[in-house]
Description:
The complex is a heterodimer. Chain A has helices at 12-21, 34-39, 75-80, 82-87, 89-95, 101-104, 109-115, 122-129, 142-145, 213-221, 246-266; strands at 5-7, 26-28, 47-50, 60-63, 66-70, 132-135, 139-141, 160-166, 170-177, 184-192, 197-202, 210-211. Chain A is α+β, with helices and mostly antiparallel strands. Chain B has two domains: 2-77, Beta-grasp domain (Ubiquitin-like (UB roll), Roll); 87-156, [2Fe-2S]-binding domain (DNA polymerase, domain 1, Orthogonal Bundle), CATH 1.10.150. Chain B is built from five helices and five strands. Chain B: One of its GO terms (molecular function) is 2 iron, 2 sulfur cluster binding. Chain B: Pfam families: Fer2, Fer2_2. Chain B: This is 2Fe-2S iron-sulfur cluster binding domain-containing protein.
Amino acid sequence: xxxxxxxxxxxxxxxxxxxxxxxxxxxxxxxxxxxxxxxxxxxxxxxxxxxxxxxxxxxxxxxxxxxxxxxxxxxxxxxxxxxxxxxxxxxxxxxxxxxxxxxxxxxxxxxxxxxxxxxxxxxxxxxxxxxxxxxxxxxxxxxxxxxxxxxxxxxxxxxxxxxxxxxxxxxxxxxxxxxxxxxxxxxxxxxxxxxxxxxxxxxxxxxxxxxxxxxxxxxxxxxxxxxxxxxxxxxxxxxxxxxxxxxxxxxxxxxxxxxxxxxxxxxx
Amino acid sequence: xxxxxxxxxxxxxxxxxxxxxxxxxxxxxxxxxxxxxxxxxxxxxxxxxxxxxxxxxxxxxxxxxxxxxxxxxxxxxxxxxxxxxxxxxxxxxxxxxxxxxxxxxxxxxxxxxxxxxxxxxxxxxxxxxxxxxxxxxxxxxxxxxxxxxxxxxxxxxxxxx
Lengths: 268, 161
C-alpha cells in the first residue's frame, strides 16, 4: 500500500470540504473494497477521508412510507435490523448474503453503492425497489445513479448520506453464487411495487446492474412465475468469462427470476 | 504519522503509526501479539479475525487508524496466560479441530463471535454457513464444526465470554 494522509472529519460538510481541498482524495467507511485494492496498489489515493466517525450517518429508520438507511450502516446492521425486516425483509436477506460474517461487520451500504461493483448485491435492490440515493448535494434516482461498471453519477466531492427505499408490496432477492468467490454470478431482485413490477439483475451485465423489461411487463399483468414461460433473455450484453458464458448467465436470469417471484409470493 | 489509542485485550495501548498500517500489522509487529495470523492477506481466509468492539472482523482489511478509540480482542485475550483455556479453545483441543493450526486463531475468534450472535445451540448447518469467511486447508472442516458445536455449549456454563 502506498502512503496517504488520513483525515477524520466529524461531519459530512467537513468531509466534503476535505474532498474539495484534496485532489484525488477517496472516502472510506468500512474499507472492505478500498483497502484490498489499495493493498494491491490498484488504487493509491493520496488522501483518505474516513466517514466512519460521523455520528448519525448509519441511522436506519422509517420516514413516512420510505425505509431510510444511512450511508455508513453496515451490512450486518441492515441484515439484523427489525425496522428493515419489517418493512422490506428481502433487503435484510440480501444484506445477510453479502460476503461473510466478518465482512458484513465492516462493509457499508454507501460504500457498496459508491463502488458499484458489477457483482455487488445492493445495486440490484436499489434499482428494483426504485430507491433514491441522497447525497450532500442532491437526490438521485436509481436509474440515473448507476452508469456502468464501477461508475456512478456521483461527482468528485459528492458524498452519499442515505438511501431511501419506497416499501414494495412484495419483493425477493435470489443469488446464484460463484462457488469459489461467492460473489453473485447472477443475482435477481424482483419487486412488486404499487404501480409496477421491477426486475433488476446484478452479476450478469457487462455494463453493470440492469432491468429486464420483458419480464417486468409480463409480471405487471400477473405476478406469477408462470407468466415468464416462453420469454427468453438475450445473451447480448452479458458477461462471458471462465465462470460462465453469456448464454449460461441469460439462462440463470430466467431461472432466478422465477425463483424470486415464487419467493416473493411465498412471503404472504 | 497518526496517533492512535485503543484497548487491546483489556489493556490501553497508545501508538504513533503510519496511517497505512493494517490492524493486523499493528497487533503483530507493534504489540507482538502474533497469535493473529496473516493467511491470504486478501480478506478471504479469516486467519486474521479479531474482535473489534465485540464483532468479528478481518484485521488484514482494517486500518489500525480506523480502530482508534475502539476495543480490540485477539486470540491472546480469550484466556489469561497459564489459566485454563477458553471453552472454545478447549473444545478445539478436545475435538481435534486443528491440524497445522494456522487457521485456528481466526476460526476460534469467528466461533466465539458466532456464539455471541446466535447462542449456544448451533446446528451443523448454521456453523458451516457462518464459517464462510474462514478457510482451513487441513481438516476438511468436520472436526472444526464439531469443536464449535461443543465449544458453544461449553460457553454457556463458563464465566469466560
